[in-house]
Specification:
Elements (H helix, E strand, L loop, with lengths): L9 E3 L5 H4 E3 L6 H7 L7 H26 L9 E3 L10 E2 H10 L4 E6 L5 H14 L7 E6 L10 H8 L4 H10 L1 E7 L10 H4 L9 E9 L14 E2 L2 E5 L4 E6 L4 H11 L9 H10 L3 H4 L3 H14 L13 H22 L4 H13 L1 H19 L6 E2 L2 H4 L5 H4 L3 H9 L2 E4 L2 E4 L2 H12 L30 H4 L6 H13 L1 H13 L7 H13 L61 E6 L4 E6 L5 E6 L4 E5 L4 E6 L6 E6 L5 E6 L3 E6 L5 E6 L5 E6 L5 E6 L4 E5 L5 E5 L6 E6 L5 E6 L4 E5 L5 E4 L7 E6 L5 E6 L3 E7 L4 E8 L5 E6 L5 E6 L4 E5 L5 E5 L6 E6 L5 E6 L3 E6 L16 E6 L5 E6 L4 E4 L5 E4 L7 E6 L5 E6 L4 E5 L5 E4 L6 E6 L5 E6 L4 E5 L5 E5 L6 E6 L5 E6 L3 E6 ...
Parallel strand pairs: 5-8, 5-11, 6-7, 7-8
Antiparallel strand pairs: 1-2, 3-4, 3-11, 9-10, 12-14, 13-14, 15-42, 16-17, 17-18, 18-19, 20-21, 21-22, 22-23, 24-25, 25-26, 26-27, 28-29, 29-30, 30-31, 32-33, 33-34, 34-35, 36-37, 37-38, 38-39, 40-41, 41-42, 43-44, 44-45, 45-46, 47-48, 48-49, 49-50, 51-52, 52-53, 53-54, 55-56, 56-57, 57-58, 59-60, ...
Helix pairs in contact: 3-5, 12-13, 13-15, 14-15, 15-18, 15-19, 19-21, 21-22, 21-23, 22-23
Amino acid sequence: MSDHPLDQLDLHVPGSDSANSTVRIKKRNKFRKFQARLPWASGSPLLAKVQNIQYLEYELHKFRLLRLKEAKLPVFISPMAKANLQARDDELFLLIEKAQEFLDSDRQVMLILGDSGAGKSSFNKHLESELLRTYTHGGPIPLFINLPAIYEPERDMIEKQLRSDNFNDEQIRELKLHRQFILICDGYDESQQLVNLHKTNMLNQPGQWNTKMIVSCRTQYLGQDYRSLFMPQSCGNYTRPAVELFQEAVIAPFSKEQIEDYVEQYVPLEPRTWTTKDYMDRLTTIPNLMDLVRNPFVLTLALEALPLVTEGKQDLSVIDITRVQLYDTFVKHWLDVNKRRLESNALSPLDRDTFDLLLSAGFTFMGIDYSIRLASAIFEKHDGKPVVRYTHLKDKNTWRVDFFGPDPEVRLLRESSPLIRSGSLFRFLHRSMLEYFYSRTVFDPSSHGDHDELVPQSDIGSVDPELLDVEGTLFKRSLLPEPSVIQFLSDRVKQVSLFKRHLLAVVELSKSNAEASQAAANAITILVRAGVRLNGADLRGIRIPGADLTGGQFDSAQLQDADLTGVNLSKAWIRQADLSRASMDGTRFGELPCLEELKPVWSCAFSPDGKFLAVGLFNGDISIYDTATWKRIQVFQGHQFAIASLDYSPNGQQILSGSYDETARLWNSENGSTDIVLEGHSDRVTAVAFSPTGQQVATASDDKLVRLWDARTGAAVFVLTGNTGVVSSIAYSLDGNRIASTGRDELIRIFDTLTGLLVLESCKGGDWIKCLAYSPNGQRIATGSERGRLQLWEAAAITLGPGQEWTAHTDEITSIAFSLDDRWIASSSSDHTVKLWDSRSGLLISSFVSHTGYVNCVRISPNGSYIASASYDQTLRLWEVNSSKLGLDSYDLPDQQLCATYSPDGRQLITGSQRPMRQFNADSGDVDFVFPDHLHDIKCIAFSPDGLQIAIGSRNQGVTLWSVESRAAFVLRGHISFVNSVAFSPCSRWLASGGWSSKVRLWDTRSGAAGRVLNGHEGTVQSLEFSPDGCWIVSVCLEGTISLWETGTWELKAKRTIDIGRYRYNVVAYIPGCLQIASCHGDGTIRLWDDDQQLQGFRYILKQDQESYEFAFSSCGQWVATTHSTSVRLWRLPSLDQNQQALPLQDQDCASVIDGFTRPVGEVVWRPNKLEFATASYEGSIRVWRVVEDKDGPGRVSVELVWFSGPAVLIASGAVLNDVIGLGAVNRPTEQPPVVSASMTPVPTTTQLLLCPVCSQPFKPSKNQNSNLRRHLKNVHNMSPTMHPRKCKWDSIPGGRIKDDKDRKERTRKSKLLWARKTRLRHKAEEAALGLCMLSQAV
């Protein structure tokens, strides 16, 4: 049978005449007879309409067959996706199923997001093919629209696409009136659109197109408020978005299984020498390549390039492949294939001569040059729109003719380049290919040869001036709007050291040439994105206006007189940087200088006009700040204990406070006088709120009651009962007629404020709800739970329905707040972070991680410009919302870095965390190797002195020996739980390990056989070490007992128990080069024991007031570093000849203090034979520091950052801001005047804080016998939750007092008696209150 569409068409024509009722077309040559038998359309309008429908079906069928042919994909793997960008990576679904679910629903728009090359276009074509294949007459018509190919798609988009598909105006009108379309709009970002196409095309409005729209867009193209560009509008009301008609999905990177499936489909496409196994072996062996090829388009490039990249390479594990290198190899391979094609083809004489000329000039070079020039023209003359239309008669006098004209050279190069042609439309294979070639307009490696030598950073400005092309792309335009181009260029910096020097020279040029400022801004942005560290660099006088230095490292950098106008310094490391006289007008830091208080900050609240900020402290004081200057202007005193909650009245004239002293107060906001004291609660007040009318206030308490009061008189109005647990949060509705409460009983209850009656109650959620907030429009409630879950609820008049829920934090959410425009939700948590979310999608906008303690409260200013967060760390931090990272933050938080060690030669640094171990280059900070996945949850690591083995102690696998040469792991069986410490003997033959089992175990590292088991400790072994001569092993346990063993006889030779009090950090070590033992027990002191190996006599070599966790000696023995909660201290020890007579070092003898950590520092290790040390912190950072002597004068010591890996945080401690120009007063750190009052209630200085004995994660004390810690031990470490509290470690934070075990037992007994008494009194008070309430209602 013929393939002509008419031979496959079966048309039915309704009518009364049986002869004309059914028309079947079987053969092509009968079409004219068929057309002749039909009456002329002019004879009957109805018949004319019927005829048009017949021919329209024919056109649709022809269109369907054509599109099925064009949409066919050679390789397709169905992608997985997640609900939105903030969703967890393990919450995935098949995208095709979600798309089908969308098509079956009433929703109108589905947005598909994904990175460049994630497979959005492939999925769209596959979806179109599936819909066309299952299409039935009269059903929805799938219409694929390549948005970049449509001129002005914001108007008449569908008509323009149908005309390009050869439909006439009459057919288009018929389709508009009677048919539904499924629009598959591809490449929203490539069309350079910033409008809502659904709205501007008036889709689904009366008399308009009936559609469902699926639109795809790159994630990098979007800003924070992207949903407004896609969300449908309510019918008849273009000002209100219809959230219920919108859906989104984010394409996830390929998994290993999907990559293998792709390779299996790829291999048979053409003859190849490699099999699927060959490709997979290379992909898994080359470091970091599997992570790179999780992007489908990059995977395609890698499969083409791998045979060339690995040719002649023996050890694949040392190959370093970047994304830009894959593009380089692919392009060369593409041009080589086309060169061979032309060589074998029969060309015309003119084409052959032209081709010979191209060969003599270098065909590959000419092809790359053609694509680079085309990419430059597209960006410079076509606004970066990737699709170019060329018609010779119309465009022969335009720039297009140079790339698409009939000239033989142009034609041969065009046909050999990675371009796609569709009629008169031309484009690169992929948008990223266009960006790749455009990046080569900045730096083309083929024009500079091979430059692989390493050049030290001090060579800034040493490049030949001819490399600095002032007419080049770098100088002419800002590259910041093109993040993918910057990413390619940053990869190029890592690949070609010459380019790095080129960029540094451009930055240097800006010092003397103002016209180079744009190029310098581009250059330093690329350098920072490439991870180039400018610590200590001489950047005096550079001009980089508008540069993006987010996350840059500028420790101790010299930036005097620099032009930093409009520079983004969010999350930049500018510790000890000198910014004197720098121009900083419009410079963004992402946050303001923090407001420091003398006590922990419990709560905060903005005034309605945003001019003031009230801050509640632990000691009961309330500080008032002027938000114009951020200076403290008043302090209200009256409460006796912590201010748990604050709220301003709607008119701003009063402040409502609730305290742990069981009272609430109404204050005059102008003079600070107490207007009313609200008494009645029998336990601490946890939350307060003003009604929107200002006529009523509410208080909530741990006594399970919510009380409503008259704001004018202070009279009790209602007592709201029904809560079966403590009430942790309350919030009024928009009109004030309802109030929501929640707490320990895991329910949300909504009461009528006019009657005091319960009107709504939620279902039980299975988690303690810690906080809630009404949205400004009163239609939704947001809640935060103890387990870090954030949930939205639809608060209708008669129902309270659960909505979207997601994991927002790793610990309990302490507070949430809506912005007044309902755009954002801010949340704070005990995990020390503050996060900003899109209130509609739940999308994470930004994370703020500078707090060093629990964050108790968060509020958004009325104008939406700032977020204020109150913390246990005695600070209130102010974050700039508008300076949040453009784009979207990753959901995943960094893992705690628990341990680190250097290799014996000091070239590698090995780190251990909850995820697989990593090996860093100790000089550059580059990750050289990532250990296998099973090596995770690492507690301790040690390198053997011969450098051949690594001992790894973990939480769940005991001890593992790793062979450095073979990269094979061997598990040593014997430990029943986690291992705290491992140490090699000096000969590398023996390994000692200690952990939870209170035993020290010995192992033969050659055979892996278990050796001796040394018994003598009664608690967890925390630290151990071999003596330098290998004759002794010293160990210390949780109870502070130091044990000394002789290795020859394995006998316990000495034992000494130190009274460590409340401290639970015990570390022992030998001083390098001698047999003296040093020990530290958490109290800030270091004891040096006599060298008689009897543990009888000792003396202090260090005494400091701060608690310490770890200490480490430098290899020379002259320096010691100690770690603390959020800092590291460096000390210079006396020389050996002065050692015996020297007094112990005191706080004033500290050589340097290193701040900037937001979580405790778990370990510090010194680099062998160098004055460098590395720190591993629970915040997820690895930082390497260099000790510099005599830099600032004889005897002066400074510590400079060499490199770091981990979360970027704004660190500006020690930065010099003398005489800076344009920096607003609010961005300058100011010292608040101290407030001293005799009426202040003395407050203890430390508060009890439990630390997990396994991972040292801190937990706040609770009345329920430390239930948080017990739950953590059971769920995370699979340990018995009934563990005695004495097995736990203790830490301290400001705000309370810790006692020893006996005092704690006595306090527990007394507290139980007091609690029972309070309970009896509370019951009596409740009965009396209920009686009064009933009596008042009866009256």
